[in-house]
Design brief:
Elements lengths: L5 H6 L7 E2 L2 E2 L1 E2 L10 H13 L9 H21 L7 E4 L2 H16 L6 E5 L8 H10 L2 E5 L12 H5 L4 E7 L11 H10 L3 E5 L11 H4 L3 E5 L9 E5 L1 H6 L6 H4 L14 H19 L8 H27 L4 E3 L14 E6 L4 H10 L2 E2 L1 E3 L4 H6 L8 E5 L6 H14 L1
Parallel strand pairs: 3-13, 5-6, 5-7, 7-8, 8-9
Antiparallel strand pairs: 1-2, 4-10, 9-10, 11-12, 12-15, 14-15
The chain binds pyridoxal-5'-phosphate.
Length: 417
């Protein structure tokens, strides 16, 4: 078998065949974390059985652990198309990395009164709160870019309006975990660069649904989380090499003598999760050619992701077409058929007169899993004035979902609405 087959994909995920009292599970909670294929589990198991020692010893387990850690960094560099393996590092998760990097940048840039930080009303709080804390501690001013609540996109001049020679940092998301909008981060990073500011891109919601190329985007920093793309709970960061080399990093003294990535990776390297993140990238690469045993390459990663995207796009079209025909349902994101490429399949809805949490509970009773509320997207939910109504009901597709599952959800929603 070669190429993408939904049956072949699903067979690789042990969690997808679990049922409760004979009822299959429908996983539509993917924006909050995806299920994991056997290959990822095998990678983590092997790390704990065969590659389990600290790094730098002369014995075989230590040598194997070091080789594994190197391989995981190579895979992350290929996943992002980073120029060098030393341009990427791992951390606990996106939020923890961003809290640390915001403090490292605050100190490196010597931020203070008169400096400006640009944040977005479309972002998850993990790319907002760390910068608000920096602003509160330094006296820097925060400027906001606002999205249009009818189109769910930033107007072309949204960033131009707030950029100035005082802007030091621009923090934006590649894709929103609320509206699902994919932002034109390439143009935003170019604008930030011309203003002399550093760009910091949150790619957590984009990473499971598209090919990331940090060189093409031209960003200074970009971060995602492997548990959103079929891996373990772990964050993966890219940084521009000259910035990583020159910047300050809060670290323990013995590790300060090292360059990136060790300069930014605090504590012992978590072999089992590094192995699992490597496995997740290998899994994505195998989606194009169905062979997880082939050597990892950038081309295979991109081809695998594109194969998954083809299936996802058909499901997104089916989902949004169905949602827009249910009376009382409002999709809080892009719906027009010719603009679906400008969104990820993270689809937030509201239903007239219904509480999102109640709907999520009714669906859970039917073994359909999804999230409701603000989902940490405080800014977008407030910007759309939905907090008072309990936020949204969020439906999140992954490449392992099926057309039948989407039909079942649409029937369930029709009944609820
Ligand atoms: C867009 C976005 N950014 C950041 C995060 C936070 O990621 P983590 O859990 O890795 O800290 C999430 C998690 O849902 C997210 O969706």
């Amino acid at each position: 078998m070669t190429g993408f087959s939904i049956a072949g994909v699903r067979a690789q995920f042990p969690a997808l065949s679990i049922s409760d009292d004979g009822k299959s599970r429908i996983y539509l909670d993917n924006p909050a974390g995806t299920q994991v294929p056997q290959h990822v589990i095998n990678r983590a198991n092997r790390a704990m059985i065969e590659q389990n020692a600290n790094l730098g010893g002369a014995f075989v387990t230590s040598e194997m652990a070091l080789a594994l850690v190197d391989e995981a960094h190579q895979a992350a560099a290929q996943f992002y198309n980073a120029p060098a393996t030393t341009d990427v590092f791992y951390g606990a998760n996106m939020t923890t990395i961003t809290l640390a990097m915001s403090r490292n940048l605050q100190k490196t840039l010597n931020l203070g009164e008169g400096d400006e930080i640009v944040l977005s009303r479309m972002d998850h709080d993990a790319n907002v709160a760390p910068w608000l804390l920096v602003a509160a501690d330094t006296g820097a001013t925060v400027k906001w870019i606002e999205f249009d609540t009818d189109t769910f996109e930033f107007p072309d001049d949204a960033l131009d309006k707030v950029l100035s020679d005082k802007t030091r940092i621009v923090a934006v998301s590649y894709a929103s975990n609320c509206t699902g909008t994919i932002n034109d981060v390439k143009s935003m990073c170019a604008k930030a660069r011309s203003a002399g500011a550093i760009s910091y891109v949150d790619a957590v919601q984009f990473a499971p649904h598209g090919v990331i190329d940090v060189q093409d985007i031209g960003c200074d920093f970009l971060v995602s989380s492997a548990y959103k793309f079929f891996g373990p709970h772990q964050g993966i960061m890219y940084g521009r090499s000259d910035l990583l080399d020159s910047m300050f990093s809060y670290q323990v003294r013995p590790a300060l003598e090292y360059g990136s990535p060790a300069k930014f990776e605090t504590g012992s390297a978590p072999r089992e999760t590094l192995a699992a993140s490597l496995g997740a990238i290998e899994y994505i690469a195998s989606l194009g050619d169905d062979d997880a045993g082939l050597p990892l390459s950038r081309d295979r990663i991109a081809a695998g992701m594109q194969a998954a995207m083809g299936h996802e796009m058909a499901l997104t079209r089916q989902l949004i077409g169905g949602l827009t025909s249910i009376k009382g349902v409002k999709v809080r994101g892009i719906t027009s058929d010719n603009a679906l490429a400008r969104r990820v399949p993270t689809v937030s809805i509201t239903v007239d007169g219904k509480d999102p949490a109640d709907m999520a509970k009714s669906l859970a009773d039917d073994n359909t899993f999804l999230w409701s509320g603000h989902n940490y997207a405080l800014e977008p939910i407030n910007h759309m004035n939905l907090m008072k109504d309990g936020g949204v009901l969020r439906i999140g597709l992954a490449h392992y979902n099926t057309a039948e599952e989407v039909d079942t959800l649409l029937e369930q929603l029709e009944e609820l609405a």
